[in-house]
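OP here, attaching both records as promised.
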Amino acid sequence: MDITLLYFEDCPNWKVAEERLAVIAAERPDVTVVRHLVETQEEAKRLGFLGSPSIQVHGIDLFPQPGAQVGLTCRRYPTPGGHEGAPTLEQLRAAFTGA
């Protein structure tokens, strides 16, 4: 399964997501993570980039949020411990099980 981590450079949260995705990739040999730097608003619109970091499989965001806007912003994820800048490992594992 190819996972795309979309991010923009000014948001530090993508590094946390990358570390968590590396754990998933180490656990699952069928998973490959590809980073994609989003640099313009036009590219964000074309990719459906809902903020940094975004995690997609086959162009589908794994954590869609109602009313989320496309753009070069830092993204927040609801987690059991409150809002964070990246999904938890448990949330990622669950999302990939269903992907």
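Record two, same layout:
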Amino acid sequence: MDIEKYIEVIKDYRVLVLIILLILSVIAIGPHFEKGQLTTNLKYGLDLDGGAWIQLEFQGEIVTFEMDRWSNLGAVDEFVTTLSERLEADVILVEQNTLEIRKSVPEEELRALFDELGVRLVSYNPGISKSTANDVKRVLENKVNSLGNRDAKVYTVVGLNNVARYIRVELAGVSMAEAQEIVGKQGKFELRIQTSGDILNPVTEHVLFGDVISGVQNPSQNPPNSNQWGVSFTLSEIGAKQFQTGAIAYGAVSDPNNHYLIMYLDGEIVYSAPLSHELATDLSVRPSNSLVASTGFGEEGRNAAQVLEIHLRNGALPVDVKIAGSGSMSAELGEQFKFWCVIAGLFALLAVTIAVYFRYREPSIMLPMVIINASEILILLGFASIAMQLDLATIAGLIAVLGSGIDQLVIITDEILHEGKVPSPTIYLKRLKRALGIIIASATTTVIAMLPLALMDLSTLRGFAIISILGVIVGVVITRPAYGRIIMAILSK
């Protein structure tokens, strides 16, 4: 083709969109040299970067029941309250005749208690409701993100009965000891006020849980430049009223030095201090939703403030959890996986190139097909650098896209070269439209097949499904129309 023909092809909107996306993808991937090594903005999962995973088991049950003497709504509420008091646990009415018990209770013990209360236990399923599991997932995501682990993945495992029993957390680039420290704790935050006893053995009363904390600031010096560190946090309107009521009722306002404000995480004290004179004065007349927890001076105070910030951001897990399983991947093995993934991708591209060459034996047809196919992978890597991690399943998805993509380009080329002749422009457009119709139908079935995997929390399978769906969409919307325009210009020679 002459220069004018090249310019005409590049100016076509389909080719132009492809070029713009390729440039944006390269910018997003951001290849650059750092410490003498070529690096990118791509994020890797624990398969390729090393790390640890922990599976937590929810300590609760979903039960269904039938009752005779508890026949109306008021009686059901009374039964739930009685059960909660007897078990010393939160009991939630999820649906009619379905309870969520937020404590691990053996089935035999629970059945005996139900019989004693005159209620028949119909079914017993270890775990919690899907909505509660989602709350736990949100809290854990906030917890790991507050520590800078924004590449962490949190999956809930929900059964066909809509009961969640496990939640899995994957932390790339984190050792097993660190992962257990981050995730293994239950994160149940509570604020209480000392009513009697000394500070080493205080007798306290509950004031609020962490779910009423609406915002937490980064650790800072308070007052500024004083070298005294603390964490500022805000309470919701309900939380502020609860705090004022508790502070007045338990003496923290009238006698703050003998009624410390104590914060607990999983039953252990993480902060203890009296109310400041200014805050005690304010609480005596109105609620205060803006609070500062001072943690001390110097580096020790700063470190304590950072730890307290994490605890405040966690909120309160609605249900206890325990570690049910764990595993890790070494960074050295992850580096080996990266190397072999690159080799596998290059071999896949080489195999595709050889197959296309032996089919058409024409470099002017083969090269555009291979380049278009590779450009699709580049666009997907650009998306991955922004929105997801690369792991072994995602790499497998990219290689699958490489194979399915070349299949579709072969369909277009064969349809156009039907009977071995280059058709007239009118017939060409008809054949191209027919080929794209076949591709769209095939792409639709792929998306439908992969959609359940993409929507379910099935760990690494989700990455494979998402990449497969994105590959199909990018192919149908961007690369196939662009290839149709390019191959038309080449065949017109």
